[in-house]
Amino acid sequence: MKIRIVGLPDEAPQAANLIARTFDVIEISEPIPSRGASRNVRIYIEARLPESTE
User: Fold this and answer.
1) What is the pLDDT of residues 43-52, one digit of tens each?
2) Bridge-partner residues for 25, per DSSP?
3) Spatial separation of the C-alpha atoms in residues 39 and 48, rounded to whole Å
4) Which residues lie below 8 Å from residue 32, measured CB to CB, with a gap of 6+?
């Protein structure tokens, strides 16, 4: 699955790290500045659901 995080530069990486604790992450992009006058950045994550431990 693909996940996009949009947030301030100090909070978006923190959110990405929280997602990485829950999902099997394949790739996390570097923060990309949002367009226009926004202070936000975007981070793209490619992840899978974790495998069951049953």
Assistant:
1) 999 999 998 7
2) 47
3) 29
4) 41, 42, 43, 44
